[in-house]
Amino acid sequence: EYSLAAPLLENNFRLLNKVYTDRSPVVLLALCRLLGCIISLPGSPNAQKWADIALHRYEAVCDSDLLELYLPLLHVCIKIWWQTGRNGELLQLRLNTLKQQGIKFNDRISLLEAVDLLEEKMFRVS
Description:
With 126 residues, the protein is mainly α. Helices cover 67% and strands 0% of the residues.
């Protein structure tokens, strides 16, 4: 139930954002999970807002694990830009450049699935 989850995820993000830095892994994962949920709601008016915030937060990220979410995030943002009539050419160029540099990207995986996979990898207790 994405419509029920979205407000909870938004509150979760806001709380974590008060405790951790803007670009900490836990905050970025919460932000991407929120955006992944929001885009699953047809016609969500907040999708563009959260996509803008996520792109801005990822500008200076250099953590290689977190960069695994960057391509699915770009893919989602391109979709949002297209749906809202914004020009997504720069985002598409950035996505294509990263693919050409050899960064692997499975465009069949959703942003939510990418967040789940990364959380498993990052927070796995051995």
